Amino acid sequence: MKLYLAIKKARNIVCVEVNQKRVILHLSLDASTVEETELVRDFSNKGHWGTGDVEVGLRSLKELEEVKPLLERAYMEN
What we know:
Elements: E1 4-8, E2 12-18, E3 23-27, E4 40-42, E5 54-58, H1 61-77
């Protein structure tokens, strides 16, 4: 728990991990329903801290605006 933060409603919606290069969000979404991009990756078959099958790697606030619909979707679906 020292290395990440989980945000939840009834269950975890997103886990936030911060390192020196970027902020990593692991969203609780079905990875098969999300299009992979430079920022968004399928993480369903890889190990990581926290919850979620979709990884979003952010380096700027502008990138956050691009993935905001995924955050809203994770909130609504969980």
